[in-house]
Design a protein that fits this description.
This protein is α+β, with helices and mostly antiparallel strands. The protein has 4 domains: 3-161, no CATH class; 172-303, no CATH class; 382-464, no CATH class; 471-609, Aminopeptidase, CATH 3.40.630. It contains 26 helices and 21 strands. It is globular, with a radius of gyration of 29 Å.
Length: 610
């Protein structure tokens, strides 16, 4: 279904269908209903103002790709001033990206704005695409290596800086033949093998991963073609790669391709090594040794300069998180050195896993590295180490939350802690709470590296702390949780929230008295009971995540900053990670309430999918 537009006439003030010209009632329901009947998808939520609002389109010709910026104009039926039969687009600006050069040619500009300003407006959505589903196809006609566009601004930047190859490596007949071909000589046997290996992966530990089968072909003695077959839920996709060349057997979204998880099957790894020897500029073999998502280095070159930079530096944690990392959303011209971008050397970025790489973790690591690089000199970072990095002020910069008493530890002692946590990968939260409890107690009962189980050391230390629950603390707690700013973050007090979260299976509630934290701590096997004083002193906030179907049963425990602007923790039972659908609800809640996610308890995948 193609895109269409509803246009508001400057002459009558009414809304009209840009396809058939029919006058419409001006509300979203009637606009979308008519679009469905008329056979197009509405290209803009709001009606376009005739002669005012702008749209753009890309068109591929024999000479190059033309970017046109246009204004809509309703076409009146002869003899009528308020009846129309469609819309025309008056071209105000034309920029041509010719093959064989890297300098765009502006052939017309009546907008009164520089090309750079127009590209910014396109990126920000103020100039809308007239035919977005056709833009990649139009560009691919001229530049065969481009099968999708990240943005027009990114396309313009890549064109200006390195250009695109306009000659196709293969003839159309050879390309069509390879796009229909399966790896190997006996196609039926290979198809059966793909299906069998796919079933093995889907039934095993790599559930949901898309198998990739590869082969390498030599074409006319000059070019080598990497031939990849993707088998995803019964659908085959064939991709061809060579130097400055890419082709696909069907229309695809590169963003959707990159979001999938892949696994290399059959002899694909040996094929990759051979391809890497011939075209080393992709760094494909080294990347495949760190991640099986080999489409990143292959597709990035003509799609996104930031992904290309990270992929060629063999840093999958950055390349594969480009959608959620703030540093990967900068202007195309501002991508440069990864170390300057993130404040961390390549060796550290490579050590960070894809699951660990988020803004909260990388920002903390940047500050820690600036203080003492030795704190990050490890061959891997366990979950416990990441917990400690993000919650302990080991960079000597005071934190409003986190592990207490760190300022009393020397750098040598902090290194001792990190080595201890490297050998205890899954108990970081209990260890951090153990350190905080020891700081309040005034002594480390079992030392910095307990020789008994961490949970036992933690529980025995907490048992030594007498939580004073006198009338002052009770009154302070109840006053804090009953305040308007505290209650505003819950989802169960206003009609607006009830409507917003009507389809969601969760609610966010608040404790009403000190004992609620003790009950939650017992039910969830966590230490939220020791946060009574912090809530009473207004240095943190505690919220409960509950299922609507069972409001009395503990499900998740959330910690939010004292000002309600940052999410610090989101824990399931025994400080585990919440299920993905619960994480996505929390992402939705944070966005609605203006809360920044500052914890890796919420995965990058949840933030992408929400």
């Amino acid at each position: 279904m193609s895109s269409g537009f509803i246009v508001r006439s400057v002459r009558t003030g009414e809304c009209y269908c840009g396809k058939c010209g029919k006058r419409l009632i001006d509300d979203s329901y009637n606009r979308s209903k008519h679009a469905e009947l008329c056979g197009f998808a509405v290209g803009s939520e709001m009606p376009l103002r005739e002669g005012i609002d702008l749209g753009y389109r890309l068109e591929g010709t024999d000479e190059g790709v033309t970017l046109s910026v246009c204004r809509p104009r309703l076409k009146p039926i002869r003899g009528f001033s308020d009846r129309f039969y469609g819309v025309e687009w008056d071209t105000l600006c034309e920029t041509r990206f010719n093959a064989g050069t890297r300098i765009p040619a502006v052939t017309k500009n009546e907008t009164g704005m520089e090309e750079e300003k127009l590209l910014d407006l396109i990126k920000e959505g103020h100039i809308i695409p007239i035919s977005p589903e056709r833009d990649p196809e139009e560009v691919h006609k001229v530049f065969p290596s481009v099968i999708d566009l990240y943005s027009v601004q990114m396309f313009d930047h890549i064109y200006r800086n390195k250009g695109f190859r306009s000659e196709c490596v293969l003839t159309k007949e050879a390309e069509a033949k390879l796009l229909r071909k399966l790896p190997g000589e006996k196609e039926r046997e290979n198809l059966a093998r793909i299906q069998e290996e796919s079933a093995q992966y889907e039934a095993g530990t790599a559930t949901g991963k898309v198998p990739i089968l590869g082969n390498l072909y030599r074409y006319r003695g000059e070019h080598y073609i990497l031939h990849l077959v993707l088998y995803d839920k019964g659908e085959l996709t064939v991709l061809l790669f060579s130097k400055n060349y890419c082709a696909c057997s069907r229309k695809v979204s590169v963003k959707e391709l990159l979001r999938k998880e892949y696994c290399l099957v059959g002899s694909t790894r040996s094929v990759i090594r051979r391809f890497d020897e011939i075209y080393p500029e992709y760094h494909l073999a080294q990347y495949a040794g760190m991640s099986e998502n080999i489409l990143y280095p292959l597709l990035a070159a003509d799609y996104h300069v930031g992904i290309e930079l990270a992929a060629k530096s063999c840093v999958p944690s950055i390349a594969e998180n480009y959608e959620v990392l703030s540093e990967m959303k900068r202007e195309p011209a501002l991508y440069g050195n990864l170390k300057k971008m993130f404040g961390l050397p390549i060796s550290v970025l490579r050590t960070v896993s894809r699951e660990q790489a988020c803004d909260a973790v990388l920002e903390r690591m940047k500050s820690i590295y600036a203080y003492n690089p030795a704190f990050l000199q490890f061959d891997e970072y366990t979950a416990s180490m990441i917990e400690f990095y993000t919650n302990a002020a080991i960079d000597r910069v005071p934190m409003r939350y986190g592990v207490e008493g760190i300022e009393n530890l020397t750098d040598r002692q902090i290194l001792q802690v990190l080595r201890f946590l490297r050998n205890h990968p899954d108990e970081g939260h209990y260890y951090c709470d153990y350190l905080s409890a020891c700081a309040r107690l005034g002594e480390y009962l079992f030392g910095l590296a307990p020789d008994i189980p961490i949970r036992e050391a933690h529980d025995r230390t907490v048992a030594r702390i007498e939580i004073t629950r006198d009338i002052r603390i009770r009154e302070g707690f109840e006053k804090a949780v009953s305040s308007k700013e505290y209650r505003d973050l819950a989802t169960c007090f206003t009609q607006e929230d009830e409507e917003l979260y009507a389809e969601d299976p969760f609610v966010v509630t608040i404790p009403t008295e000190c004992d609620d934290l003790f009950i939650e701590s017992s039910n969830m096997h966590n230490c939220v009971r020791i946060y009574v004083g912090r809530v009473s002193n207004k240095t943190t906030r505690i919220y409960f995540l509950r299922k609507k179907s069972d409001l009395d049963k503990s499900y998740g425990t959330l910690e939010v900053s004292d000002d309600g602007k940052e999410l610090w923790q989101a824990k399931a039972f025994a400080n585990g990670r919440l299920p993905m659908y619960a994480q996505r609800f929390i992402v939705k809640w944070c966005r609605a309430k203006g809360i920044r996610i500052k914890t890796w308890d919420i995965s990058n995948q949840a933030q992408k999918g929400a």
